[in-house]
Amino acid sequence: MTALFTGLDSTPGLGAFGHDNVWLVILKAVLIFLILVLLTLFNIWLERRVVARMQHRIGPNVNGPFGLLQSLADGVKLALKEDIIPKAADKAVFLLAPVIVVIPAFVTWSVIPFGPTVKLPWSDTHTPLQLTDMPVAVIFVLAIASVGIYGIVLGGWSSGSTYSLLGGLRSSAQMISYEVSMGLSFVAVFLYAGSMSTSQIVAAQDKFWYGVILAPSFVIYVISMIGETNRAPFDLPEAEGELVGGFHTEYSSLKFALFFLAEYVNMATVSALATTLFLGGWRAPFWIDTFWAGANHGYWPFLWFMGKVMFFVFIFIWLRGSLPRLRYDQFMHFGWKRLIPFSLVWILAVAAIRTIDLNGGLDRRWLYAAIAVCVALIVVLMFFEEKQDSDAAAEEEATAFDAFAGGYPVPPMPDQIGIATRSTSGQEH
């Protein structure tokens, strides 16, 4: 057992991939699939327990110890439910949409590093705790994750339901909008790491985590990943108040379970990507390796990695139990007029500072001071823009209400004052 958690620290490079036997590649793929399925079952249970605790309820506690088997029981129940296909649905697309959503959710994990190069316990074979890697691995994750949007849009369109169609359109607009800010948050990481390879980005964080030295990018990514996964308070495509259930309203049985599975796997995916790009990946937290030489050796890094992923999962759950849902216009306004401009200005600042720093022309203290000034200026500009928007809204509300401005009589709201009223005969009073 000790041999599993000891060994030389070997951070894999791109040359370490592509040499595994076929059986080892298949074994890694199967293990990743099993980890994600089990993680989904656990995350569903964890979410229900944590939210119940926040709301002074008990949560699942009957099936299995502490209710741990409740998610499995729910999965079996979904599988045994009647599989209904609406008459107005496009049957082929309706059946294919959940598959298009769930497959990319699993494929993105093929480039996520779980740990360093390790020795297999049953042989002398050394292999990275990662299925594969490539020079543009992060771009690969974004590209594959974008394919899942097609499944959601097709699922909403093929249902033959207006509610489902609106949910699918909302979801596509939301994901595209927040993928822009998410991609921009990666640029600063690429500038500092000098690579788009996930294993190389982890290796570049051996001294400092990018979540600390690139804190604005980290904050932008965390906000974007919540919007990207359609999770509360950004779960507008599934808003029960106006869309019943969103793009999967007409789905039942295993097809609905696939949408549910994809949502939780995507939640784990963006958490793993945040861990890899901003929190040092599989490296020991809080620089434990400075006083424990074996912290980053053997199979211990897998535990650090999963612990960081669960930290982000808890953030998802915490936000769901704490914040109310935004209005759709507020949500899109925040993405396009706040996150994206902030990201662009931050990238320009990081690129300039990084160039000066590489040329040896800037002291570290001045570097951090310049970053702080840039962030402060951006915040001040956003504050003044918000104030102008609120003043304009207040001025618009203060104007007199014309019930006939659009050509049809509309009664004023309680705080509005009509400038004219008319009788049914058309005479003005």
Automatic annotation (TrEMBL):
Keyword Translocase: yes
GO biological process: aerobic respiration
Origin superkingdom: Bacteria
Subcellular localization(s) per the UniProt record: Cell membrane; Membrane
One Gene Ontology cellular component annotation held by this UniProt entry: plasma membrane
Transmembrane region(s): 22-46, 92-114, 134-155, 176-196, 208-227, 256-279, 299-319, 339-360, 366-384
Family: Belongs to the complex I subunit 1 family.
Complex and partners: NDH-1 is composed of 14 different subunits. Subunits NuoA, H, J, K, L, M, N constitute the membrane sector of the complex.
NCBIfam families with a match to the protein in the record: PRK06076.1-2 (NF004741), PRK06076.1-4 (NF004743)
Protein known as: NADH-quinone oxidoreductase subunit H
Organism per entry: Nocardioides pocheonensis
